[in-house]
């Protein structure tokens, strides 16, 4: 019972507090709470729920596809993004862009639970400008940002994207086609572009994020990540000498150090790809329920060293030598190319209806950027990776969505340029790309091994075509942060107008901030007697009932007026408090005058007696007023004659009641997600 009493007491206090707020402020408070919750929490969940895999996948029931989340151009905001933006606007920009990325990414991981998450470059905005121990930016305004600053930005990226991924319960599984987080693909804001890349900056990124060129088997597809910002130095005007690379090794020597490792990787790509597929097929065979396939995968002639730490490094670099007789049909693992810079296309190539700005990617270049790869480099990539085995190309850099088919290459290769995930990159609706992979492998078809079945002339000559329809895509749009801020601004304007109107037009006696207990008190708010002079010169006292007995309607000033019976107008007596005697309404040159006595005046009139020929501003019985008197009295008691101090106090109290709970709730949401 004491516990119940405490609850009842709390409810009573809450009810009493709410009764003081009033309907308008309380309604605004509730609207603000719901709007803030929507803008800071539920809108993220609502947008991601529209992207749930089963909402758009069209695979047959019962199959388990491999789900991939592609993130492009987060470009975490730093001093390079808006160098001329003053404080505190610059700090607020960093705060709100980071919050947006954290909330979006966290919601994507929680609700979609992707098997693999891949980044398409431009992790930082000014990463190429932050110096190393042996290099400093050529731009004077960035020379003071060195290695320590870059390391802090690196930790910031890890806390924003890497740590939440590990906390999501999707552990990394090396050597398997399971869960992966790959952030090693560089962008031009991470390294620079082409000949403008500094080797020290490139080495730093490589050391912290992993191999810039790599091959991964995910969902029975071969993902080939290429450092195309470095490769572009092969066919680019040298920034220092003006020499033009032709792709045949005639580029400047300094640029050659940038692009040659990538070109060498491309030359070995088919071998590296086949080696990675062999390893995957071996693991699939080892997990097969069929003994003969396990034997083929683990027999003496098919042994693979299980070196988890060096596995990927050896595969990517091509150092591993193998005399393994196992052969595979690499076409059964379709190739998906990941590049930061999109492949070349015609400048009028339409990007489709889901693009926000314009209809095509503009063909242009400048300091440390180039919108698309050159035709030479694009052809070099496609030829060396075999156009017949390329299922998709995913790129970034442009910040907006673009979906095209390349008719320049065999097979009309499809490319999707993924939207930026950041709302600070020039798009109102940021987004990510969802990729669903389903490619069931028939090991008897994929493996050609003497350990499983003896090769025959027919089998050796058999060529399997790349399976089609193994990739499904979906653009997942994220909240419009600028639109959320605009919604807040609109609601703020509505709030100010509503509270200002309330303060101007509502009467103080009906103010919601007046305690209900005061209104229901046995003590009357007005004096119970009024002394006046009757026609005979003697004082009369008229009783006035308590306020709540006069009227049940607190919203009408006239209902609180005294109901004292007035003296008949015919005998010349005063017709009620403030009413003029009959003589005063005549044209007599000596009008009857009403004298107020100071000592017995309970209304706070001046201490000196004075005559009044017009009705005094006292409380009247409206039923005894003439129409002219009633209009004059009504005007005198409206908001036009109320004191400015009362209006300001009413408006201030209303703002406090609305703003304090809303701001407290808002800042708690910010603190929780920081």
From TrEMBL:
<dbReference type="InterPro" id="IPR029052">
    <property type="entry name" value="Metallo-depent_PP-like"/>
</dbReference>
<keyword id="KW-0812">Transmembrane</keyword>
<feature type="compositionally biased region" description="Low complexity">
    <location>
        <begin position="556"/>
        <end position="568"/>
    </location>
</feature>
<dbReference type="InterPro" id="IPR033308">
    <property type="entry name" value="PGAP5/Cdc1/Ted1"/>
</dbReference>
<feature type="transmembrane region" description="Helical">
    <location>
        <begin position="485"/>
        <end position="506"/>
    </location>
</feature>
<dbReference type="GO" id="GO:0006506">
    <property type="term" value="P:GPI anchor biosynthetic process"/>
</dbReference>
<keyword id="KW-1133">Transmembrane helix</keyword>
<dbReference type="GO" id="GO:0005783">
    <property type="term" value="C:endoplasmic reticulum"/>
</dbReference>
<feature type="compositionally biased region" description="Low complexity">
    <location>
        <begin position="581"/>
        <end position="592"/>
    </location>
</feature>
<feature type="region of interest" description="Disordered">
    <location>
        <begin position="292"/>
        <end position="327"/>
    </location>
</feature>
<dbReference type="GO" id="GO:0016020">
    <property type="term" value="C:membrane"/>
</dbReference>
<keyword id="KW-0472">Membrane</keyword>
<feature type="transmembrane region" description="Helical">
    <location>
        <begin position="654"/>
        <end position="671"/>
    </location>
</feature>
<protein>
    <recommendedName>
        <fullName>Calcineurin-like phosphoesterase domain-containing protein</fullName>
    </recommendedName>
</protein>
<feature type="region of interest" description="Disordered">
    <location>
        <begin position="529"/>
        <end position="602"/>
    </location>
</feature>
């Amino acid at each position: 019972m004491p516990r119940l009493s405490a609850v009842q007491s709390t409810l009573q206090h809450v009810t009493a507090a709410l009764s003081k707020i009033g309907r308008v402020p309380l309604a605004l408070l509730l609207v603000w709470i719901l709007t803030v919750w929507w803008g800071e929490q539920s809108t993220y969940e609502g947008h991601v729920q529209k992207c749930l895999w089963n909402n758009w996948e069209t695979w047959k029931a019962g199959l388990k596809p491999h789900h991939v989340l592609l993130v492009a151009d987060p470009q975490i905001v730093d001093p390079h993004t808006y160098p001329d933006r003053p404080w505190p606007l610059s700090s607020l920009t960093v705060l709100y862009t980071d919050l947006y990325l954290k909330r979006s990414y966290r919601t994507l991981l929680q609700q979609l639970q992707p098997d693999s998450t891949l980044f398409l470059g431009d992790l930082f905005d000014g990463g190429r400008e932050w110096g190393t121990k042996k290099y400093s930016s050529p731009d004077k305004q960035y020379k003071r940002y060195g290695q320590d600053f870059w390391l802090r930005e690196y930790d910031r990226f890890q806390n924003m994207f890497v740590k939440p991924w590990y906390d999501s319960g999707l552990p990394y599984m090396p050597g398997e086609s399971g869960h992966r987080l790959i952030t090693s693909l560089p962008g031009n804001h991470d390294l620079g572009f082409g000949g403008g890349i500094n080797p020290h900056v490139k080495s730093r990124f490589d050391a912290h994020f992993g191999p810039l060129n790599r091959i991964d088997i995910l969902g029975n597809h071969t993902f080939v990540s290429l450092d195309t910002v470095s490769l572009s130095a092969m066919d680019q005007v040298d920034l220092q000498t003006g020499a033009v690379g032709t792709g045949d090794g005639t580029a400047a020597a300094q640029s050659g150090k940038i692009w040659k490792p990538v070109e060498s990787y491309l030359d070995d790509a088919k071998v590296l790809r086949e080696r990675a597929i062999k390893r995957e097929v071996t693991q699939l065979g080892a997990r097969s329920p069929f003994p003969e396939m396990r034997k083929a995968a683990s027999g003496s002639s098919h042994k693979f060293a299980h070196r988890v730490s060096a596995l990927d490094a050896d595969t990517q670099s091509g150092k591993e030598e193998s005399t393994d007789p196992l052969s595979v049909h690499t076409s059964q693992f379709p190739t998906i190319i990941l590049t930061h810079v999109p492949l070349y296309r015609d400048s009028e190539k339409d990007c489709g209806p889901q693009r926000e700005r314009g209809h095509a990617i503009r063909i242009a270049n400048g300091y440390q950027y180039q919108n698309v790869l050159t035709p030479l480099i694009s052809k070099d990539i496609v030829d060396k990776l075999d156009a017949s085995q390329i299922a998709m190309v995913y790129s970034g850099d442009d910040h907006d969505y673009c979906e095209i088919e390349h008719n320049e290459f065999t097979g009309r290769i499809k490319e999707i340029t993924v939207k930026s995930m950041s709302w600070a990159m020039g798009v109102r609706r940021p987004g990510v790309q969802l990729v669903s992979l389903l490619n069931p492998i028939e090991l008897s078809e994929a493996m050609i091994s003497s350990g499983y079945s003896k090769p025959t002339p027919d089998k050796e000559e058999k060529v399997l075509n790349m399976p089609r329809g193994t990739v499904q895509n979906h653009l997942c749009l994220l909240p419009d942060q600028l639109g959320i801020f605009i919604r807040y601004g609109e609601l703020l304007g509505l709030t100010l107008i509503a509270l200002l109107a309330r303060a101007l037009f509502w009467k103080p006696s009906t103010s919601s901030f007046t305690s209900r207990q005061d209104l229901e008190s046995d003590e009357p708010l007005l004096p119970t007697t009024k002394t006046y002079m009757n026609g005979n010169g003697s004082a009369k006292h008229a009783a006035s009932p308590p306020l709540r007995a006069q009227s049940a309607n607190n919203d009408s000033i006239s209902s609180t007026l005294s109901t004292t019976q007035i003296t008949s107008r015919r005998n010349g007596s005063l017709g009620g408090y403030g009413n003029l005697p009959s003589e005063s309404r005549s044209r007599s040159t000596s009008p009857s005058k009403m004298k107020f006595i100071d000592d017995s005046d309970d209304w706070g009139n001046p201490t000196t007696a004075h005559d009044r020929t017009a009705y005094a501003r006292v409380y009247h019985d409206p039923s005894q007023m003439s129409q002219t008197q009633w209009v004059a009295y009504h005007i005198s008691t409206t908001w036009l004659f109320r004191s400015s101090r009362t209006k300001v106090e009413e408006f201030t109290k209303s703002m406090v009641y609305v703003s304090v709970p809303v701001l407290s709730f808002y800042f708690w949401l910010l603190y929780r997600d920081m």
